[in-house]
Design brief:
Layout: E1 2-7, E2 9-12, E3 17-24, E4 30-38, E5 45-51, E6 56-58, E7 66-70, E8 76-81, E9 90-98, E10 102-105, E11 109-114
Parallel strand pairs: 2-11
Antiparallel strand pairs: 1-3, 3-8, 4-5, 4-9, 5-6, 7-8, 9-10, 9-11
């Protein structure tokens, strides 16, 4: 499975950005996709995930500000990020989970929120 992420960039606090990710290759049995992020000096953390049944899960720090969704093709996922804060600054990684226990990562895209 290959994951190609796009979006990201530099935005002022309070602004919005949208990240997109498309999965290709052996996408059979992908049961969830999502976004993780890693800030300098910190561990990678979950941001949001969505299952093949459209069940979503969000980190407490982004609830109410970020929205994850899947495209009609089901091999794409987007993350709408609103009301961005400087602490959202990180490299964001797209991930896909394929049954039974494989996880694939995209290349990462930088999100920088200035105060």
């Amino acid at each position: 499975v290959q994951l190609q992420a796009s979006g990201g960039g530099l935005v002022q606090a309070g602004g919005s950005l949208r990240l997109s990710c498309a999965a290709s290759g052996n996408i059979f049995n992908i049961n969830a996709m999502g976004w993780y992020r890693q800030a300098p000096g910190k561990l990678r953390e979950l941001v949001a995930t969505i299952t093949s049944g459209d069940t979503t899960n969000y980190a407490d720090s982004v609830k109410g500000r970020f929205t994850i969704s899947r495209g009609s093709a089901k091999n794409t996922v987007s993350l709408q990020m609103d009301s961005l804060k400087p602490e959202d600054t990180a490299i964001y990684y797209c991930a896909a989970d394929r049954w039974p226990d494989a996880r694939y990562w995209g290349q990462g895209t930088q999100v920088t929120v200035s105060s």
